[in-house]
Specification:
Helices cover about 35% and strands about 25% of the residues. With about 240 residues, it is of the alpha/beta class. It has a domain at about 1-75 and about 195-238: P-loop containing nucleotide triphosphate hydrolases (Rossmann fold), CATH 3.40.50.300. The strands form two sheets. The protein has a six-stranded mixed sheet, with helices on both faces. A four-stranded antiparallel sheet has the order 2-1-4-5, covered by helices on one side. The two termini are about 35 Å apart. About 45% of the residues are buried.
């Protein structure tokens, strides 16, 4: 198993958000976290990336416990992350944003073993980004920022790519383009963990999914099983 999250409890300030959450992601697998806004999907992702400390439980990645590691050390171990707000440095050009991951990738096992040009795979997924390299982050559209954020995470040469609301606010045609990108990334041997509010959208990409509600996992299984489960559908509709 590539990623194993076991019985974690995570707080935001005094608020107990995640309650005994366990999830896993296997090699060459796309896993979706589905739930309404505020259900706890982003908190799970921030727990995995180290942006939020877990109060109890265990997180293992590639057979190593990483529960207490800071975010940059998790990134070096091969966890790429594209946040909901893209996280693009607005004053830097796209090339400079990608350079940060290229520099970090040189310090990773997978990046050091590669050909030194980890951006090539990112451009394979999103050729559009190559045309944006001289543009500052603040001059990108919402869809372009999300493309650059994913390309930047890809430039890290990750084993696992985490996408938080990658399709939020995008036009249907652009969403289709991003779904195709997810399949291309998977074909490259990179596993994905995706937070998605729309079950139907998640079902088009995910091998497995978890439904999150009020900080707990209330369903785990194949997308088709979730779509056929009346209780899951009621939970997601609120």
């Amino acid at each position: 198993m590539l990623l194993e999250v076991k019985d974690i409890n995570t707080y935001r300030g005094p608020a107990h958000i995640l309650r005994g959450v366990s999830i896993s992601v296997d090699t060459d697998e796309v896993v979706a976290l589905v739930g309404r806004n505020g259900a706890g999907r982003t908190t799970i992702i921030e727990s995995v990336t180290g942006l939020l400390p877990v109060r109890s439980g265990q997180i293992r990645f590639r057979d190593e416990e990483i529960t207490s590691l800071p975010p940059h050390r998790r990134a070096k171990r091969g966890i790429g992350y594209a946040p909901e707000n893209s996280g693009i440095f607005p004053e830097l050009t796209v090339a400079e944003n990608l350079m940060i991951s290229r520099w970090l990738a040189q310090k990773t096992e997978r990046g050091a073993a590669g050909d030194g040009n980890t951006e090539a795979r990112a451009f394979t997924v999103f050729p559009e980004v190559r045309q944006l390299v001289d543009r500052q982050g603040q001059n990108l559209s919402g869809g372009q920022k999300k493309m650059v954020a994913i390309a930047r995470a890809m430039a890290l040469a990750p084993y696992l790519l985490i996408l938080d609301e990658a399709f939020e606010g995008l036009a249907p045609a652009v969403v289709k383009r991003f779904r195709e990108a997810v399949m291309t990334i998977k074909a490259m041997g990179i596993s994905l963990l995706i937070a998605e509010s729309n079950l139907v959208s998640a079902a088009t990409m995910a091998d497995r999914l978890y439904v999150v509600d009020r900080g707990e996992i209330v369903f785990h299984g194949k997308p088709q099983q979730a779509l056929a489960d009346d209780q899951v559908m009621r939970t997601l509709r609120g």
